[in-house]
Amino acid sequence: MTAARATLASWWDGDLLYRFRRSPVAIVSLLVAVLLFAVALGADAIAPYDAFDPAAANVVDARLPPGSAGMYGETYLLGTDPQGRDMLSAMIYGLRTSLMVGLASVVLAALVGVLLGLVAGYFGGVLDAVIMRIADVQLSFPAILIALLIDGVTRTALPREVHDALAVPILVFAIAASFWVQYARTVRGLVLVERNREYVLAARVIGVSTPRILFTHILPNVLGPVLVIATINLALAILTEATLSFLGVGLPSTQPSLGSLVRIGNEFVFSGDWWISAAPGALLVLLSLSVNIFGDFLRDALNPKLAS
């Protein structure tokens, strides 16, 4: 128990938490992000209606303004969409979908990028040159263009119903394919430094296997920058999903996300139905802003050159 308390005290008094406690902006951004994550995870219990249930939508109640009463006496706090779905419920479920796509794409991009960065930095030579040249070529294309290309190829190769059923995995893969380069280049640069450190050389001398050196010795020492990149990329992945859905190549309208809700509402903005687009747009901004601000804090706090 004493050792556990000492560890907890050391962690609490650490530089990262010390800087966090002295940054009100970081605290507020983290609280907002955690609150939105909690709402997304509890969508089934929090949302007034099931946005995926066709029976919960009533076309008679379509495009009702915020605070309106429905045909059967329901109260829609944020109004309804063109399908008659409760906007608050659709936004909560859309928040969960956007977070799920963003988190999955960041995890996939980090796994691929970290693995390629470890291999390129540790082995060097032709393998390093090939991986980095592929990364350089990909950097010459905008991320949104790569995602559009992957989505377009899958739409051409797969029947429409199959593509709609696999919309989420395809979108995750498309976004991850755009972001792995940052992880690979960062990890490679760090591994080039770490591979010549004494602890790595000692591990080689005593016969430790290469995979164990990479994943047990080197990887823990390069995870700090990876965490910062992942935090910032989460906001970018959510915005990329929203952009693709807004362009009509992301998730289908039957599977609400923040981006698809904004796209649907955009068609009715000039009709005066501003809430259909404005409400999910504001939630998207709040989510991206909170994650971005906290990511900026982590970047500054974990950068020794900026440590006070």
Automatic annotation (TrEMBL):
Main location: membrane
Membrane topology: Multi-pass membrane protein
GO cellular component, one term: plasma membrane
Domain of life assignment: Bacteria
CDD domains named among the record's database cross-references: TM_PBP2
Keywords on record: Cell membrane, Membrane, Transmembrane, Transmembrane helix, Transport
Record has Cell membrane as a keyword: yes
Places the protein is found: Cell membrane
Keyword Transport: yes
Listed name of the protein: ABC transporter permease
The ABC transmembrane type-1 domain, residue ranges: 95-295
Membrane spanning residue stretches: 25-43, 99-124, 130-150, 162-181, 226-254, 274-295
Family (UniProt): Belongs to the binding-protein-dependent transport system permease family.
SUPFAM superfamilies associated with the record: MetI-like
GO biological process per UniProt: transmembrane transport
Entries under PANTHER family matching the protein: ABC TRANSPORTER PERMEASE PROTEIN, OLIGOPEPTIDE TRANSPORT SYSTEM PERMEASE PROTEIN APPC
Pfam families reported in the protein's UniProt record: BPD_transp_1, OppC_N
PROSITE patterns, alphabetized: ABC_TM1 (PS50928)
